[in-house]
Amino acid sequence: MEILALLGDGMLIALQPLNLLLIIAGVTVGLFIGAMPGLGSVNGVAILLPITFLVPPSGAIIFLAAIYYGAMYGGAISSVTLGIPGASTAVATTFDGRPMALKGQASLALVTAAIASFIGGSVANIIFTGFAPVLASVALSFGPPEIFALMLLAFATFVGLGGEDIPKTILSICLGLVLGAIGFDQISGAPRLVLFDINAFLQGIGFLVLAIGVYGIGEMLWTIEQTRGEVENNTPKMTARGMASDARTALREGWKGTAIGSFLGFFVGILPAAGATPASLMSYGVAKMTSRNPEKFGRGSVDGVAAPEAANNSASTGSMLPMLTLGIPGSPTTAILLGGMVIWGLVPGPRLFVDETEFVWGLIGSFYISNMAALFINLAFIPVFIWMLRMPFTILAPMIFVLSIVGGYAATRDMFDIWLILIFGFGALVLRRLDYPLAPAVLAIVLGPIAEPTLRQSLLLSSGDPMIFFTRPVAGPITVIAIILILLPALKLFRRKKATPAIGE
What we know:
A hairpin with a 6-residue loop joins strand 1 and strand 2. The chain has 505 residues and is an all-alpha fold. It is built from 21 helices and 2 strands. It has one domain. The N and C termini lie far apart (73 Å).
C-alpha cells in the first residue's frame, strides 16, 4: 500500500500544470523526432538537453523522459508509411509494417503499433513500480556469460527468421556478423577488416546507416523493380469507426506478440548496454518462433508489428531502472539522461529513492502520464500519416530517397556514410533478387558487437573453458535452451528429407 501511496503522490506531481505541459510537449516532439529517419531518441534528447535548463530539474527530466517515450512511438511511423526505420529500435517493425502498408493496411499497422506500444509501456511501468530494487539486483547479477547466453538465445531465433532455407539464413547471419566486426577490436583495440585501408571504416559501420540503406533505399529500389513505379493506392480514408475496427483487430490478432514484447522487452531493457533495439529484434524472433502461422511474418503479420513495438516501449522503461537504482545507463538515451541528472546535482543510485523521494516518484508517475498522452497523440495523428500514402509513387519514391540520404547524413554528418547507404541499398536489392533473407543479417549486426566481447570476456574469466556457459546457474539453462532451438530446425529439415522418397523409388 505504501508503494501505491507514493505512486499516487508521484502522479499528482506529474499532473502539475508545468509538468503536464512538459509531458505533452515532450511526447509530441518525440513523436516527430522518432518518425524522422536518422534522428531517434538519442539525438532528440541530446539536442533538446540545453532547453531543459530553463525549468526545474524534476521538470527537465520529466520532459526528456517524455521525448524518449514519444520517440519510441514515432519510430513506427516512417517504418510503416515509407519503409524507412525512424530509429534502430523500429527496424523490426519494418519487417511486417511496410508489407501491411503496401497491402492497404497502413492504418491497421499504425493502430497496432500504438496499442502495442501503450500496453508494453503500461506493463513495464507496473513491473518497474512494484519490483524496482529486486530487478536492479537481478540485472547487476548478469555478467558476461549470462549476457552472451542471452545473445546466443537471440541468435537461435534467427534461424526461424529466414524461412525454410536454413543455409541462406546462416549465410545471412554470417554476413551481418562480418559487417558488425569492421572497425576497432573492442578488447585489443586493434583495427580489423578495414576494407581497402579506408580510415573511415575504423569507426565501424553504424547500424542506422545499414538500416536506412537496406530498408530505405533497398525497399524503394525493390518496389520500383517489382511494380515499375505503378503502385496502386488502396489506402482507405480514415474514420473513427475504421480506427475502432483496427483497434479490435490489433487486440485480437496481436495479443500474443504484444505479451511477448511487453515482458521480454522489459527484462532485456534492464540489462546494462542492451537497450530497446536488441529487445525489439529478439521479441520479433520469439514471436515468429512461437506463432502458429510463422509463414505470415515478413508478409504483413499483425503480431510482427505488435511484438517489436511493445518491446521497444517496454525496454525504454526497463532501461530507466538500472539508471535510477544503480547509476548504470541501460541504453544510449538513458546515458544522456544520466548526464543530465548529474548536471542538476542528482546522484543516481540506491540512495536516490531515499534522498530524492519526490523527484523519483514524480518521474515514475510521469511514465504513466506520458504513456497515456503518447497513445492519444499518436492515434490523433494517424490520419495525417495515412494521408502521406495517398501520394503517387512517382512523388513518394524521390521523397524516400531524399529522407534516407538526409537521415543518414544527419546521424553522423559524414559523407562516407551516404556512400555506404547507397551501397547497402543496391546490395539489399541483389540479395532479395537471390532470395536471401535480410532480417537475420540486420539482427546479427546489432547483436554481434554485444555477443563477441561478452564471449571473449567469459572465456578469459574461465581460462578458455567453455563450460562456464553451462555451469553458471543463470547462463546454463539459457545456453541449453538456445542450443535446442538452434538444432530444432535442422532436425525438422532432416526428417522432411528422410520422409521424401528418392526419385525412382
